[in-house]
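Ticket #4471: structure export looks truncated?
Reporter: QA, pipeline team
Priority: medium

Steps to reproduce: submit the single chain below to the structure queue and open the exported record.
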Amino acid sequence: MRWLNFCANILVHAWTGSVRSVKVFAVNEERAPVKPRLILQACALAAALFLGGCFVTSDKKPLQVGPVNDEALVGDWRAVDTDNGKLLNSFIHIQKSEQGSPLRVVYVEDDDYAIYELTTTRAGSRKVFALKAMSPDKAREEIGSSLLLGYYELAGEEIRFHMLDAETVSGLIRAGSVAGIPAKRDYDRAQLTGTSEDITRFLASEAGWKARTEEASRMRRMRPEE
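Actual output as written to the record:
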């Protein structure tokens, strides 16, 4: 599959520091104009990077409680429009890493790409993730060393990613319900500053679950012929 070869090429060059620019050639179909809202729906993993980052970060990971680095996520996934179920031209390749290490994620949309480390774990009954930008430089500059936090749900051949909403979490921070730094203005990120235990407790709580973004971002597992 040309898509797999493309992702492998990005990974090799990114790890050796030789990535300069990339051009997506995985999809040959005619591209329709993509609305900004659909980009957000396309993949929560990259929305914070490409749309200004109005999400929630932390410098600490949630506690590592199984399944850690969920291998059920490994594979190739394509974004789905939440309104009509149509496939979009955004893709992620999730790769298993060394034992105990975070999963590797390659995100591709048109001429943009990003590489992340993805740690998954459980907070109470919820499956949660912490995402760290690795490459290119603009991804690391936007997010820094912080981790993007959220929830995920895996049902059959589809993943749904829920980021935490900065506005809602900022309100909880101001109310003293959770330790952190609220967003200073619209579309800024909020930051959770508690311990790993505090963050896990918050993500496991009903308040944490209700603080997720209104729309989930959907990704569908790609078939061999795609």
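Status: closed, not a bug. The export was complete when the record was re-opened. Leaving a note from the reviewer for reference: The chain has one domain: 2-18+35-221.
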